[in-house]
Amino acid sequence: MTRWGRLARIAAVAGTALTLVGIGTPALATAERQVYVAMGDSFSAGSVVLPQSDLLTCARSAINYAGLLAKQLDVDELRDVTCGAATTSHFSNPQKGIVSGTNPPQYDALSADTTLVTVGIGGNDVGLVGLATSCVNLLPVGASCKAANTAGGVDKYATRIDAFAATYGTVIDQIRQRAPHAEIVMVGYPTGIKPGGCWPLVPVLPQDADYIQANIDRLNTRMAEQSAAHGAKYVDIRTPSIGHDACQPIGVKWIEGLIPSVVNNSFAPLHPNAAGLAAVVPSIRKVL
């Protein structure tokens, strides 16, 4: 049973016991203070989804999944240090602001009283957005980015992702050292594009669309494996986001295409919109 479940059960049992002895429930003992730290990159920060809470330094949305989750869990304190363009190096080192300022290392938000940590990271470390933009073909024929990245029988991105995988384990261990009582939840990446793509709506060739998604899936798999090996929980966002990829119409898609649909209050291409951020919350709650 998770900490969140145990607290609810303790409160219920305590309330019943006090009622039985004629005291009633108002005198319930104070539950443990809940401190939630959210770490991660632009997919977690909600770059650039309006309204923004921190536009200049991190392009962080006021309605990212951390903010929504904190409200639903009614935590005592939320320390949201998610930041656009973040890599795992910015967990232990300062990060220059998107427009101005400097962000302290994300690990600095952790402390002994932290009870919950969510982490969404890795896409920038392995260059997934760069891969997607390099695959753009404005004509239905042209050079394939899959062919370029798998030339000679070596898949450059698969190799890069596999080499990066152990970093997830290091991140989990570093968080546990700083926040030994926290529940650690690793949040995966969503489905970006449907099988075969949807040229010209998202102008990448069919084989390249599948190559992009295959690498997103590979990164998710490595994150899940390292989570299991290091005692953290993993949240699958890939599955619930199927059918809500960048190829879908406004009102259905959770990921924006190369030209964001500003009616979704989203201005970041190839990133989650407001609906995509909100959709992460139920999946996190399922593992808590």
Automatic annotation (TrEMBL):
<dbReference type="InterPro" id="IPR013830">
    <property type="entry name" value="SGNH_hydro"/>
</dbReference>
<feature type="domain" description="SGNH hydrolase-type esterase">
    <location>
        <begin position="38"/>
        <end position="277"/>
    </location>
</feature>
<protein>
    <submittedName>
        <fullName>Lysophospholipase L1-like esterase</fullName>
    </submittedName>
</protein>
<dbReference type="InterPro" id="IPR036514">
    <property type="entry name" value="SGNH_hydro_sf"/>
</dbReference>
<dbReference type="Pfam" id="PF13472">
    <property type="entry name" value="Lipase_GDSL_2"/>
</dbReference>
<dbReference type="InterPro" id="IPR037460">
    <property type="entry name" value="SEST-like"/>
</dbReference>
